[in-house]
Amino acid sequence: MQKYQDVRIAVAPMMDWTDRHCRFFHRQLTRRALLYTEMVVADAVIHGARERLLGFDDVEHPVALQLGGSDPRKLAEAAVIGEALGYDEINLNVGCPSDRVQSGTFGACLMKTPLLVAECVSAMKAAVKIPVTVKCRIGVDEQDPEPALDTLADGVLAAGADALWVHARKAWLEGLSPKENRDIPPLDYPRVYRLKARKPNKFIGINGGIQSLDEVSEHLGHVDGAMLGRAAYHTPGILTGVDAAFYGELPAAFDYAALIDAMADYAARHIEKGGRLGHVTRHMVGLFHGLPGARRYRQILSTDANRPGAGPDVLKAAFAAIDFAAAEAEAA
Predict the structure, then answer these.
(1) Span 87-98, mean pLDDT?
(2) Where do you find CATH 3.20.20.70 in the chain?
(3) Per the annotation, where are the binding residues for FMN?
(4) DSSP β-bridge partners for residue 63
(5) Catalytic site includes residue 109
(6) Residue 241: what pLDDT?
(7) Topology of domain 256-331, per CATH?
């Protein structure tokens, strides 16, 4: 199990995006970054179809299970299940602003009840041996981010949370859609830096709007970890530089042909189990962003890969559209 002080880079949990196929793909790009599941509600973990909701490939390690909920007993039970299934970390969602999570009294609205969040963390810590962490916002609605974030952080860290990941935006639960909440509230990175200054001996990670590894490096001068979200999803090639830049591994030319072979084999296994090629390739559309042939690659994965009966040969045909020689000539 990875020690939390070894965590530097993570790929954010993202609803409808970071499913098991996405995580398998991302793990081919970086061996070291911490990967997160989509948020899974505690009740679903306890009562739902566990293989469908929680199944993952061993190659995904280190991988964390993100839970949604506000009942300490249920969250503890769900955490025990996650630990038994082999997850490396349990994370509590205190940041998602969607209507669905508000109606269930979890997600970002829990910023308003920091004592309850601390109780949830305490219950999970008592139930499992793996790290328990929290992902939150700097505040919600009319809250002042200074006392709101400090109060939440003080409570969960005192309750034993191994890390606090902070999305450096407020969430507006009234007046903004979940999509708007990802863009409209202004980013306030210095607020997260101030929290780290207050908690020098605690792991504080930052999330929100980080677009490049250079930006990651800048943040790591102030906090312990950085979490890539949409940049990792829409332009996943960014992840190929993570291990060399932040984990001391020797930089090497990335073997994209080997990656495509691995993903084709994985897709074939998924199809054999009744899945569809598009379930896998939808996460790969942005892989060659900016390279000659990328447009044709995207077209093939967006159309042919979603046709009934599509097989791994479609992925290889898409890859063949990328002109690496032209890319090298442009870079020279």
Answers:
(1) 92
(2) 4-246
(3) 13-15, 66, 135, 167, 207-209, 229-230
(4) 35
(5) no
(6) 97
(7) Four Helix Bundle (Hemerythrin (Met), subunit A) (1.20.120)
